[in-house]
Amino acid sequence: MNRVAVTGIGAVTPLGNDAGTTWRALVAGRSGVGPLETFDASTMPVRIAGQVRDFDPASAGPARERRHLSRAALFAAAAAREALRSAGGWEAATDPYRRGVAVAGTVGRPELQELVDMSHQLESSGYHDLYRQAPVDVLRRNQNLGTRAVAEAAGARGPMLSLSTACAGAAHAIGEAYRAIQEGEATLMVAGGFDALTTWMDVVGFSLLGALTDRWNDEPERASRPFDAERSGFVLGEGAVFAVLEDWDAAVARGARIHAELAGYGSSLNAYRITDSPPDGGGAVAAMRDALEESGLGPDGIDYVVAHGTSTPGNDLSETVAIKEVFREHAHELLVSSPKSMTGHLTSAAAGVNLVAALGALREGVVPPTVNLDHPDPKLDLDYVPNRFRTRQVRAALVNAFAFGGTNACFVVSAPGPAPEPLPAQEES
Fold this sequence. Notes:
Blueprint: E1 4-12, H1 19-28, E2 33-35, E3 48-50, H2 63-66, H3 71-87, H4 90-93, E4 99-105, H5 112-124, H6 135-140, H7 143-154, E5 160-163, H8 169-182, E6 188-196, H9 200-209, E7 238-247, H10 248-253, E8 260-269, H11 282-295, E9 304-306, H12 313-327, E10 335-337, H13 340-343, H14 350-364, E11 366-367, E12 390-391, E13 396-402, E14 407-414
Parallel strand pairs: 4-5, 4-6, 9-10, 9-13
Antiparallel strand pairs: 1-7, 1-8, 2-3, 6-7, 8-14, 11-12, 13-14
Helix pairs in contact: 1-14, 3-7, 11-12
């Protein structure tokens, strides 16, 4: 099996429009949650989200390449391009037919106004006319156009995977890209996820499920509170995160800057309930164990768990139980934190933000906090790094991602050697 290096990272998140700004905001404990601005939410029970702000569509590529892309796919193209720039030197060193992509995203749906227009037109014609949409509107809802934009940025002509496994999506994409390189199908893969469920349809849907918190509309920065006793549901977010993965020997041969080694991957299915996490940790235990076993590190080789940590009562308890089951006596030596406390839940891109946190911790010896953890829950007794970052040498980190439908994906990243220079960042607004 080939070793796999992480050589590039790019991000567009509620905390910043590049990976460096996102990382520094995570360390600072700065929340990106604020009032919803993608539609008029004034009459909604939930009026907040983690939204991308001050985004320049030109960062997603030339106008001709982005004209058919949705809001979420524009984020994807921009993050992928940043990851490729940060990897540097890959184009001359790799065959296009040995480059591939693995991309997670949510299948697009019509906006509310489109449905209203459709209903009015059909009603006025006695439901005899075919409702006609502009071709560009159909294309913008196609998940694969986002995947194509990422492939185009990489000049990739090799393996192409387009995944939709909800909140575990980016972790599955990164894991399957890892497998493609391990098994010799590709030399370089661009992998990650994108999403923008900050729409009327999605906010209504998740509200009806009872998954979103509606208690903090007037204090949005305090709304996402994983592992806190007063947690009451998650906060929707949006964005994209992509990594460049390469065959280790090829990366070393071309003199690439290696951020980390991707050392293990596991996935599983709970087969429990669609929206609820099993109280005993369920398939999360299996996914974590598989990733650890493949890494060869063992439980005491992990210093940091980047938690899925959604801020829903059941998920946070289930994840804590699973971590304790997998790590046993070492569980209380771990640092565990949830970036979602600051970004909200980026759904298909969520594990990508967790990767940004893991890479930063490996590089700089700093673990981002879980903010808003003000009221300890007696059932949750791990070290969740409450409210302020912690300095600690991190040799390896486990990234968790668990999703509606019971899908689970986890991967391990480990330090490659001497730490590279900190990531550059754009000016914070």
